[in-house]
Amino acid sequence: MKMDAYGEEEIREKLKGLPEWKVEGNNLVRVQTFPNYLDALEFVYKVGKTAESFDHHPDIFMNYKRVTVKYWTHKANGITHLDFEMAARVEDLVKEIYKPRAPKPAG
Tens digit of pLDDT per residue, the chain (107 long)? Predict the structure, then answer.
């Protein structure tokens, strides 16, 4: 199945629904910092499981609590509907896993 890469205008429009994502070069990119290492690691694992089930794999970089996810479609040499679909699934995983730290009690 041939997929066509989106043009700049289409990408800008689609990014409105994914405000945490940006375009870097030919990649759709999301950076998330988690409260701790294990939450970040759980997120990476679940992104990997989701990617495997869709056979569409991102580049994932983890640096302690910070995770960067990059999607692009090699066959289209750009960003396609599949990349945006996967980005939306990554957003669902962020909401599932991200647990902000509770404020420390005063005094």
Answer: 567 999 999 999 999 999 999 999 999 999 999 999 999 999 999 999 999 999 999 999 999 999 999 999 999 999 999 999 999 999 999 998 877 665 566 65
Assigned fold of 20-97: Gyrase A; domain 2 (3.30.1360)
Element (H, E) at 24: strand 21-24
Asked if 62 and 46 touch (Cβ cutoff 8 Å), the reply is: no
Domains in the chain: boundaries: 20-97
Of 25, 32, 53, 19, residue with least CA distance to 97: 32
